[in-house]
């Protein structure tokens, strides 16, 4: 009989936490016991896993006793505090927040792109899963980089509200209802109305006028590829979409790569699904990406303004491949090759 593992999910009632539960079930991860952990207000709630109702327990110093693998989906501050505690009990932590992504002793892993980097997890027994946009971008860029080398990347993102929180999902629904009924909107989550609107701000602004989200995309993409000097420019926009991040990506490579060659490479690349037939108006959309694990790629064409340029349009489910699925794949890689 194959080995099974005691698994904990911190932030189990969050949108990402719920998705981790579903992905563990969908992928038949070898769970022996599943421990669902969250803030005091959710203590005693029940969530379903494999037709079993499991009670949520509070996050405290004793929560990780006997746990082999702990997924953290509760934000950076709690991850910084409780990942080291979980490690002292013998657990290995897979963190989905920004808490550990820049720590050189913590691997930042997208299994389709840099699986070998997971080996350094032994330093701190913590593995970081990247920002959702950096994850889908890295998967789309990997085959192009392998074939022709990345020189410069410009990305403009169109990011769903589910990346913020379940409250943001509820707020978009409420705002749409208010506006359709002729009532004014009182924004509760974002600084401005999000329904029927686009907000060119995700996270706080930095001194240079960029946002923390844009800097995360840049820093994490460079780290995933091991290219600290890679030229990247990012603009991150929140859009009134419930699930699925999309992005317009302009890539300049070191060597010439035709659109046809790029199409062929991406068609067979792990984690990618090419949807690109303009004659049939076929291209990636967030409504198609929602609920899927693949990064959908289309609008593949050469950029005539530079010698070695390509344009792509990508869409992916930010809660699945952008978060939960990537984290579970990390766990699969961990137990398959390192435990």
Molecular structure report:
By secondary structure, this protein is an alpha/beta fold. It folds into two domains: 5-129 and 323-337, 3-Layer(aba) Sandwich (Rossmann fold); 133-318, Dihydrodipicolinate Reductase, domain 2. Helices cover 32% and strands 24% of the residues. The strands form two sheets. Strands 3-4-2-1-5-6-7 form a seven-stranded mixed sheet, with helices on both faces. Strand 1, helix 1 and strand 2 (31-38) form a beta-alpha-beta unit. The longest helix has 18 residues, at 320-337. The protein is globular and about 60 Å long.
CATH architectural group of the largest domain: 2-Layer Sandwich
Mean pLDDT: 97
- Sequence of secondary-structure elements: EHEEEEHEHEHEHHEEHEHEEH
What proportion of the residues form beta strands (DSSP E)?
15-25%
The count of strands amounts to 13
Indicate the percent of residues in helices. 25-40%
Provide the number of structural domains: 2
Q: Helix tally?
A: 9
Any idea of the CATH class of the largest domain? Answer: Alpha Beta
Instruction: Report the end-to-end length measured between terminal Cα atoms.
Output: 16 Å
The CATH superfamily of the largest domain is identified as Dihydrodipicolinate Reductase, domain 2
Structural class: alpha/beta
The residue ranges in which pLDDT falls below 50 over 5 or more consecutive positions are none
Shape: globular
Adjacency order of strands in the biggest sheet: 3-4-2-1-5-6-7
Overall radius of gyration: 20 Å
Please outline the major beta sheet: 7 strands, mixed
């Amino acid at each position: 009989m194959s080995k099974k593992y005691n698994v904990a999910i911190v932030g189990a009632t969050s949108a990402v936490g719920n998705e981790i539960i579903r992905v563990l079930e969908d992928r038949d991860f070898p769970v022996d016991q599943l421990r669902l952990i969250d803030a005091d207000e959710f203590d005693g709630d029940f969530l379903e896993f494999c037709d079993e109702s499991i009670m949520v327990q509070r996050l405290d110093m004793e929560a990780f006793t006997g746990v082999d693998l702990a997924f953290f989906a509760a934000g950076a501050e709690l991850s910084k505090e409780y990942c080291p505690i979980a490690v002292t009990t013998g657990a290995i932590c897979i963190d989905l927040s920004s808490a550990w992504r820049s720590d050189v002793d913590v691997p930042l892993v997208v299994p389709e792109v840099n699986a070998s980097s997971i080996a350094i997890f032994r330093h701190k027994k913590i593995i970081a899963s990247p920002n959702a946009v950096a994850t889908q971008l890295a998967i789309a860029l990997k085959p192009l980089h392998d074939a022709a080398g990345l020189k410069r990347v410009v990305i403009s993102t169109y990011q769903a509200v589910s990346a913020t929180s379940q409250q943001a999902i509820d707020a978009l629904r409420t705002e749409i209802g208010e506006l359709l009924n002729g009532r004014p909107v009182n924004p509760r989550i974002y600084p401005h109305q999000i329904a029927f609107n686009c907000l060119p701000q995700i996270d706080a602004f930095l001194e240079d006028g960029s946002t923390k989200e844009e800097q995360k995309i840049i820093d994490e993409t460079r780290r995933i590829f091991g290219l600290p000097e890679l030229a990247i420019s990012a603009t991150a926009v929140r859009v009134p979409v419930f699930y699925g991040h999309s992005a317009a990506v302009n890539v300049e490579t070191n060597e010439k790569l035709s659109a046809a060659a790029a199409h062929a490479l991406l068609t067979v690349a792990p984690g990618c699904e090419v949807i690109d037939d303009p004659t049939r108006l076929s291209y990636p959309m967030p409504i198609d990406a929602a609920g899927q694990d693949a990064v959908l790629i289309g609008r593949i064409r050469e950029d005539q303004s530079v010698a070695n340029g390509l344009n792509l349009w990508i869409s992916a489910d930010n809660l699945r491949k952008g978060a939960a699925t990537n984290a579970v794949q990390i766990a699969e890689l961990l137990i398959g090759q390192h435990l």
